[in-house]
């Protein structure tokens, strides 16, 4: 849970982030990481070592494509 520095609320709607291009770039980067480095994408999204990360590592070692599919589904949700 994040607290806004400007007003102290938990989800600040007062931010003016421009046209939203930064969010699209982050999503694009996350999807590219999910395709090329699936465990890194999961770790970047979770920010810690979880069971989903271990499942993705297992899928990536078992076969590269299942790990990429798992990471892409996880990152886009």
Automatic annotation (TrEMBL):
InterPro entries: PMP3
TM annotation in the entry: 53-75
Main location (coarse class): membrane
Pfam families linked to this entry: Pmp3 (PF01679)
Keyword Membrane: yes
Keywords of the record: Membrane, Transmembrane, Transmembrane helix
Cellular compartment(s): Membrane
Record's keyword annotation contains Transmembrane helix: yes
Family: Belongs to the UPF0057 (PMP3) family.
Protein name: Plasma membrane proteolipid 3
């Amino acid at each position: 849970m994040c607290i806004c520095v400007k007003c102290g609320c938990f989800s600040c709607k007062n931010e003016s982030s421009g046209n939203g291009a930064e969010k699209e770039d982050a999503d694009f980067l996350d999807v590219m990481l999910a395709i090329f480095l699936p465990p890194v994408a999961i770790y970047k999204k979770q920010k810690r070592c979880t069971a989903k990360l271990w499942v993705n590592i297992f899928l990536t070692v078992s076969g590269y494509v299942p790990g990429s599919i798992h990471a892409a589904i996880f990152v886009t949700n």
